[in-house]
SsuA/THI5-like domain-containing protein (Streptomyces tremellae), 362 residues
Amino acid sequence: MRPSSRRPSGTAAAGRRRLRGPAAIGAATLALSLTAACGGSGNSGASDAGASDGVATVRLGIYPGNLISAQIAQQQGYFKKHRLNVKFQTLSAGPAIVAATENGSVDVGYGDTLAVAAAAANGFGKVQIIQPGNIQTTEPSSDEDLLAGPESGVKSVADLKGKTIGVIPYPEINVAARLLLKNHGVDPDSAKFITITDGTQASLLKTGGADAVEGRNIGEDKKLVGESGARDLGSPLDAIPPHTITTSYFGNTEWLKKNPGAAARLVAALREAARYYNSASDSQLGVLGAKYGGVDYPVLAKKYPDILEQAHWGSWPAEPAGRADIAATQKWIATAVSFGQLKKTVQVKPLLYRTATESRLP
Protein backbone atom coordinates (compact mmCIF):
# COMPACT_ATOMS: atom_id res chain seq x y z
CA MET A 1 0.00 0.00 0.00
CA ARG A 2 1.26 3.46 -0.81
CA PRO A 3 1.55 5.84 2.12
CA SER A 4 -1.10 7.92 0.38
CA SER A 5 -3.21 5.10 -0.96
CA ARG A 6 -6.39 5.80 0.95
CA ARG A 7 -8.25 8.61 -0.75
CA PRO A 8 -11.59 10.31 -0.37
CA SER A 9 -14.53 9.13 -2.37
CA GLY A 10 -16.25 11.23 -5.01
CA THR A 11 -19.74 11.37 -6.47
CA ALA A 12 -20.55 8.58 -8.92
CA ALA A 13 -20.99 10.08 -12.39
CA ALA A 14 -20.31 8.69 -15.82
CA GLY A 15 -17.68 10.40 -17.94
CA ARG A 16 -15.47 9.66 -20.93
CA ARG A 17 -11.84 10.77 -21.19
CA ARG A 18 -12.32 13.61 -18.68
CA LEU A 19 -13.41 12.99 -15.12
CA ARG A 20 -16.28 14.92 -13.64
CA GLY A 21 -15.65 14.22 -9.97
CA PRO A 22 -14.55 16.79 -7.35
CA ALA A 23 -10.93 15.75 -7.53
CA ALA A 24 -10.64 15.57 -11.32
CA ILE A 25 -7.96 17.79 -12.82
CA GLY A 26 -9.91 19.00 -15.85
CA ALA A 27 -8.72 22.54 -16.54
CA ALA A 28 -12.15 24.12 -16.29
CA THR A 29 -12.95 22.54 -12.92
CA LEU A 30 -9.62 23.52 -11.42
CA ALA A 31 -9.76 27.04 -12.85
CA LEU A 32 -13.20 27.61 -11.35
CA SER A 33 -12.07 26.22 -7.98
CA LEU A 34 -9.02 28.44 -7.89
CA THR A 35 -10.82 31.54 -9.17
CA ALA A 36 -13.46 31.19 -6.48
CA ALA A 37 -10.81 30.56 -3.86
CA CYS A 38 -8.91 33.70 -4.77
CA GLY A 39 -11.68 35.69 -3.18
CA GLY A 40 -10.77 34.13 0.17
CA SER A 41 -9.35 35.60 3.33
CA GLY A 42 -5.76 35.86 2.14
CA ASN A 43 -2.62 34.76 3.90
CA SER A 44 -2.81 35.50 7.62
CA GLY A 45 0.02 33.26 8.81
CA ALA A 46 2.45 34.88 11.22
CA SER A 47 5.98 35.53 9.99
CA ASP A 48 9.01 33.92 11.60
CA ALA A 49 9.87 37.23 13.20
CA GLY A 50 6.38 37.52 14.67
CA ALA A 51 6.61 34.33 16.71
CA SER A 52 7.59 35.75 20.09
CA ASP A 53 7.99 32.33 21.70
CA GLY A 54 9.96 30.95 18.77
CA VAL A 55 7.17 28.56 17.84
CA ALA A 56 5.63 29.03 14.40
CA THR A 57 2.03 28.07 13.68
CA VAL A 58 1.45 26.31 10.36
CA ARG A 59 -1.99 25.60 8.90
CA LEU A 60 -1.68 22.37 6.93
CA GLY A 61 -4.39 21.24 4.52
CA ILE A 62 -4.89 17.47 4.22
CA TYR A 63 -7.69 15.18 3.08
CA PRO A 64 -9.43 12.48 5.14
CA GLY A 65 -8.73 8.76 5.21
CA ASN A 66 -5.05 9.17 4.49
CA LEU A 67 -1.72 8.20 6.02
CA ILE A 68 0.97 10.81 5.40
CA SER A 69 4.27 11.76 7.00
CA ALA A 70 2.77 14.91 8.54
CA GLN A 71 0.48 12.81 10.72
CA ILE A 72 3.42 10.69 11.84
CA ALA A 73 5.43 13.85 12.57
CA GLN A 74 2.59 15.07 14.75
CA GLN A 75 2.25 11.74 16.54
CA GLN A 76 5.97 11.29 17.14
CA GLY A 77 6.52 14.85 18.33
CA TYR A 78 8.76 15.91 15.44
CA PHE A 79 6.82 19.12 14.83
CA LYS A 80 7.15 20.09 18.50
CA LYS A 81 10.86 19.25 18.35
CA HIS A 82 11.26 21.69 15.46
CA ARG A 83 9.27 24.43 17.23
CA LEU A 84 6.16 24.13 15.14
CA ASN A 85 2.49 24.23 16.06
CA VAL A 86 0.88 22.45 13.11
CA LYS A 87 -2.88 22.72 12.81
CA PHE A 88 -4.47 20.29 10.36
CA GLN A 89 -7.36 21.46 8.24
CA THR A 90 -9.26 18.67 6.50
CA LEU A 91 -10.33 19.48 2.95
CA SER A 92 -11.33 17.49 -0.11
CA ALA A 93 -8.44 16.26 -2.23
CA GLY A 94 -6.80 17.65 -5.32
CA PRO A 95 -7.75 21.12 -6.58
CA ALA A 96 -9.52 22.13 -3.35
CA ILE A 97 -6.31 21.87 -1.30
CA VAL A 98 -4.27 23.60 -4.00
CA ALA A 99 -6.92 26.34 -4.12
CA ALA A 100 -6.83 26.80 -0.34
CA THR A 101 -3.03 27.05 -0.45
CA GLU A 102 -3.17 29.44 -3.40
CA ASN A 103 -5.43 31.92 -1.60
CA GLY A 104 -3.75 31.56 1.80
CA SER A 105 -6.58 29.77 3.59
CA VAL A 106 -3.89 27.27 4.55
CA ASP A 107 -0.15 27.86 4.58
CA VAL A 108 0.85 24.42 3.32
CA GLY A 109 -1.13 21.68 1.59
CA TYR A 110 -0.63 18.04 0.75
CA GLY A 111 -1.93 16.47 -2.44
CA ASP A 112 -1.38 15.24 -5.96
CA THR A 113 1.54 16.79 -7.82
CA LEU A 114 -0.61 16.85 -10.95
CA ALA A 115 -3.02 19.20 -9.16
CA VAL A 116 -0.11 21.60 -8.54
CA ALA A 117 0.83 21.33 -12.22
CA ALA A 118 -2.78 21.99 -13.22
CA ALA A 119 -2.81 25.18 -11.15
CA ALA A 120 0.34 26.37 -12.89
CA ALA A 121 -1.10 25.43 -16.28
CA ASN A 122 -4.11 27.62 -15.54
CA GLY A 123 -2.01 30.64 -14.64
CA PHE A 124 -2.05 30.44 -10.86
CA GLY A 125 1.40 30.99 -9.40
CA LYS A 126 1.20 31.16 -5.61
CA VAL A 127 2.00 27.52 -4.87
CA GLN A 128 5.41 25.82 -4.75
CA ILE A 129 6.40 22.27 -3.81
CA ILE A 130 8.38 22.24 -0.57
CA GLN A 131 8.88 18.47 -0.17
CA PRO A 132 8.10 15.38 -2.24
CA GLY A 133 5.33 13.43 -0.56
CA ASN A 134 5.41 10.08 -2.28
CA ILE A 135 8.02 8.80 -4.73
CA GLN A 136 7.19 6.07 -7.21
CA THR A 137 9.37 3.05 -6.54
CA THR A 138 10.50 0.28 -8.87
CA GLU A 139 8.86 -2.29 -6.61
CA PRO A 140 5.08 -2.74 -6.33
CA SER A 141 4.01 0.28 -4.33
CA SER A 142 0.25 0.20 -4.20
CA ASP A 143 -2.67 -2.02 -3.32
CA GLU A 144 -5.05 0.13 -5.37
CA ASP A 145 -5.54 -2.59 -7.97
CA LEU A 146 -7.92 -2.82 -10.90
CA LEU A 147 -10.31 -5.75 -10.46
CA ALA A 148 -12.39 -7.19 -13.29
CA GLY A 149 -15.86 -8.63 -12.80
CA PRO A 150 -16.33 -12.39 -13.25
CA GLU A 151 -18.85 -11.88 -16.06
CA SER A 152 -16.89 -9.18 -17.86
CA GLY A 153 -14.75 -11.54 -19.92
CA VAL A 154 -11.69 -9.57 -18.83
CA LYS A 155 -8.75 -11.79 -17.92
CA SER A 156 -5.94 -9.29 -18.38
CA VAL A 157 -5.35 -5.57 -18.91
CA ALA A 158 -5.20 -6.24 -22.66
CA ASP A 159 -8.88 -7.25 -22.50
CA LEU A 160 -10.00 -3.81 -21.29
CA LYS A 161 -10.42 -2.46 -24.82
CA GLY A 162 -13.96 -1.11 -25.13
CA LYS A 163 -14.74 -1.88 -21.48
CA THR A 164 -16.10 0.35 -18.72
CA ILE A 165 -13.59 1.11 -15.96
CA GLY A 166 -14.62 2.66 -12.65
CA VAL A 167 -12.01 4.69 -10.80
CA ILE A 168 -12.03 6.97 -7.77
CA PRO A 169 -11.83 10.65 -8.83
CA TYR A 170 -8.18 11.38 -8.20
CA PRO A 171 -5.72 12.77 -10.79
CA GLU A 172 -2.91 10.30 -10.17
CA ILE A 173 -5.02 7.15 -10.50
CA ASN A 174 -6.86 8.35 -13.59
CA VAL A 175 -3.74 9.16 -15.55
CA ALA A 176 -2.09 5.97 -14.30
CA ALA A 177 -5.03 3.82 -15.40
CA ARG A 178 -4.81 5.23 -18.90
CA LEU A 179 -1.05 4.70 -18.95
CA LEU A 180 -1.50 1.10 -17.81
CA LEU A 181 -3.82 0.44 -20.75
CA LYS A 182 -1.41 2.08 -23.20
CA ASN A 183 1.49 -0.01 -21.87
CA HIS A 184 -0.55 -3.14 -22.62
CA GLY A 185 -1.36 -2.10 -26.17
CA VAL A 186 -4.85 -0.77 -25.44
CA ASP A 187 -5.90 2.65 -26.71
CA PRO A 188 -7.12 4.48 -23.56
CA ASP A 189 -9.75 6.25 -25.64
CA SER A 190 -11.29 2.88 -26.47
CA ALA A 191 -12.28 2.38 -22.83
CA LYS A 192 -15.01 4.24 -20.99
CA PHE A 193 -13.83 5.68 -17.70
CA ILE A 194 -16.46 6.44 -15.09
CA THR A 195 -16.08 8.11 -11.71
CA ILE A 196 -17.15 5.92 -8.82
CA THR A 197 -17.62 6.25 -5.07
CA ASP A 198 -15.51 4.05 -2.83
CA GLY A 199 -17.63 1.24 -1.43
CA THR A 200 -19.67 0.74 -4.61
CA GLN A 201 -17.14 -1.52 -6.35
CA ALA A 202 -18.81 -4.85 -5.52
CA SER A 203 -22.26 -3.71 -6.65
CA LEU A 204 -20.89 -2.25 -9.87
CA LEU A 205 -19.19 -5.53 -10.76
CA LYS A 206 -22.28 -7.53 -9.80
CA THR A 207 -24.72 -5.42 -11.84
CA GLY A 208 -22.39 -4.89 -14.78
CA GLY A 209 -22.23 -1.15 -14.14
CA ALA A 210 -18.49 -1.48 -14.69
CA ASP A 211 -16.35 -4.23 -16.18
CA ALA A 212 -13.44 -3.34 -13.91
CA VAL A 213 -13.09 -1.15 -10.84
CA GLU A 214 -10.33 0.33 -8.72
CA GLY A 215 -9.95 -1.35 -5.33
CA ARG A 216 -8.70 0.99 -2.63
CA ASN A 217 -6.62 -1.30 -0.41
CA ILE A 218 -5.48 -4.89 -0.05
CA GLY A 219 -8.43 -5.78 2.18
CA GLU A 220 -10.92 -4.55 -0.38
CA ASP A 221 -9.00 -6.29 -3.17
CA LYS A 222 -9.09 -9.62 -1.35
CA LYS A 223 -12.78 -9.25 -0.57
CA LEU A 224 -13.67 -8.52 -4.21
CA VAL A 225 -11.62 -11.50 -5.38
CA GLY A 226 -12.81 -13.88 -2.67
CA GLU A 227 -16.44 -12.89 -2.37
CA SER A 228 -17.26 -11.41 -5.77
CA GLY A 229 -15.13 -13.65 -7.95
CA ALA A 230 -13.23 -10.67 -9.34
CA ARG A 231 -9.91 -11.02 -11.15
CA ASP A 232 -7.01 -8.89 -9.90
CA LEU A 233 -5.33 -7.07 -12.82
CA GLY A 234 -2.63 -5.34 -10.75
CA SER A 235 -2.15 -1.71 -9.80
CA PRO A 236 -2.37 1.12 -12.35
CA LEU A 237 -0.04 3.16 -10.16
CA ASP A 238 2.79 0.74 -10.89
CA ALA A 239 2.71 2.05 -14.48
CA ILE A 240 3.97 5.44 -13.30
CA PRO A 241 7.64 6.03 -14.22
CA PRO A 242 10.00 5.17 -11.33
CA HIS A 243 11.19 8.07 -9.17
CA THR A 244 8.26 10.30 -10.15
CA ILE A 245 7.12 12.76 -7.48
CA THR A 246 3.49 11.64 -7.48
CA THR A 247 2.34 13.56 -4.40
CA SER A 248 3.86 16.49 -2.58
CA TYR A 249 3.66 19.10 0.15
CA PHE A 250 3.24 22.57 -1.31
CA GLY A 251 3.32 26.01 0.28
CA ASN A 252 1.78 29.39 -0.41
CA THR A 253 4.56 31.52 -1.96
CA GLU A 254 3.75 34.61 0.14
CA TRP A 255 3.85 32.54 3.32
CA LEU A 256 7.14 30.98 2.23
CA LYS A 257 8.71 34.42 1.74
CA LYS A 258 7.64 35.51 5.22
CA ASN A 259 8.43 32.20 6.93
CA PRO A 260 11.51 30.57 5.34
CA GLY A 261 12.70 29.25 8.68
CA ALA A 262 9.35 27.68 9.54
CA ALA A 263 9.17 26.10 6.09
CA ALA A 264 12.63 24.58 6.50
CA ARG A 265 11.79 23.25 9.97
CA LEU A 266 8.54 21.79 8.67
CA VAL A 267 10.38 19.90 5.94
CA ALA A 268 13.00 18.70 8.43
CA ALA A 269 10.22 17.28 10.61
CA LEU A 270 8.59 15.61 7.60
CA ARG A 271 11.88 13.95 6.71
CA GLU A 272 12.26 12.63 10.24
CA ALA A 273 8.77 11.18 9.97
CA ALA A 274 9.72 9.59 6.65
CA ARG A 275 12.75 7.91 8.21
CA TYR A 276 10.54 6.57 11.01
CA TYR A 277 7.99 5.29 8.49
CA ASN A 278 10.57 3.65 6.25
CA SER A 279 12.15 1.78 9.15
CA ALA A 280 8.87 0.69 10.78
CA SER A 281 7.84 -2.96 10.90
CA ASP A 282 4.78 -4.31 9.10
CA SER A 283 2.92 -4.46 12.40
CA GLN A 284 3.79 -0.85 13.23
CA LEU A 285 2.67 0.24 9.77
CA GLY A 286 -0.54 -1.70 10.27
CA VAL A 287 -1.27 0.31 13.41
CA LEU A 288 -0.53 3.56 11.58
CA GLY A 289 -2.69 2.48 8.66
CA ALA A 290 -5.57 1.71 11.00
CA LYS A 291 -5.25 5.05 12.79
CA TYR A 292 -4.76 7.36 9.82
CA GLY A 293 -5.18 5.39 6.60
CA GLY A 294 -8.77 4.27 6.92
CA VAL A 295 -7.84 0.57 6.78
CA ASP A 296 -8.44 -1.52 9.91
CA TYR A 297 -5.52 -3.92 9.53
CA PRO A 298 -5.91 -5.60 12.93
CA VAL A 299 -9.44 -6.64 11.97
CA LEU A 300 -8.47 -7.65 8.43
CA ALA A 301 -5.56 -9.70 9.78
CA LYS A 302 -8.02 -11.97 11.61
CA LYS A 303 -9.54 -12.95 8.26
CA TYR A 304 -6.36 -12.69 6.18
CA PRO A 305 -3.44 -13.62 8.50
CA ASP A 306 -0.77 -12.68 5.96
CA ILE A 307 -2.26 -9.33 4.97
CA LEU A 308 0.44 -7.19 6.62
CA GLU A 309 3.22 -9.06 4.83
CA GLN A 310 1.38 -8.78 1.51
CA ALA A 311 0.66 -5.08 1.82
CA HIS A 312 2.72 -2.76 -0.38
CA TRP A 313 3.63 0.05 1.97
CA GLY A 314 5.59 2.20 -0.41
CA SER A 315 8.17 4.69 0.83
CA TRP A 316 8.42 8.34 1.80
CA PRO A 317 11.46 10.42 0.78
CA ALA A 318 13.65 11.22 3.77
CA GLU A 319 16.23 13.09 1.69
CA PRO A 320 15.81 15.45 -1.29
CA ALA A 321 18.27 13.71 -3.59
CA GLY A 322 18.29 10.14 -4.81
CA ARG A 323 14.96 8.60 -5.72
CA ALA A 324 13.13 11.85 -6.54
CA ASP A 325 13.64 12.56 -10.23
CA ILE A 326 12.64 15.86 -11.86
CA ALA A 327 12.93 14.37 -15.36
CA ALA A 328 10.61 11.50 -14.45
CA THR A 329 8.12 13.94 -12.94
CA GLN A 330 8.31 16.07 -16.07
CA LYS A 331 7.51 12.99 -18.12
CA TRP A 332 4.58 12.22 -15.82
CA ILE A 333 3.14 15.70 -16.40
CA ALA A 334 3.56 15.26 -20.16
CA THR A 335 1.69 11.95 -19.89
CA ALA A 336 -1.22 13.70 -18.20
CA VAL A 337 -1.30 16.24 -21.03
CA SER A 338 -1.22 13.52 -23.68
CA PHE A 339 -4.30 11.88 -22.15
CA GLY A 340 -6.21 15.17 -22.02
CA GLN A 341 -6.10 15.21 -18.23
CA LEU A 342 -3.99 18.37 -18.01
CA LYS A 343 -4.46 21.58 -19.98
CA LYS A 344 -0.84 22.03 -21.02
CA THR A 345 2.61 21.03 -19.92
CA VAL A 346 4.43 23.01 -17.25
CA GLN A 347 8.05 22.93 -16.12
CA VAL A 348 8.72 21.19 -12.81
CA LYS A 349 11.78 23.18 -11.67
CA PRO A 350 9.96 26.52 -11.20
CA LEU A 351 7.42 24.70 -9.04
CA LEU A 352 10.11 23.60 -6.56
CA TYR A 353 10.83 25.71 -3.50
CA ARG A 354 14.41 25.46 -2.21
CA THR A 355 13.56 22.96 0.55
CA ALA A 356 12.42 20.45 -2.06
CA THR A 357 16.02 19.96 -3.17
CA GLU A 358 18.21 21.22 -0.32
CA SER A 359 19.95 18.78 1.99
CA ARG A 360 20.97 21.19 4.75
CA LEU A 361 17.95 22.11 6.84
CA PRO A 362 17.62 23.20 10.49
Summary: The chain has two domains: 13-21+139-239, 27-138+242-356.
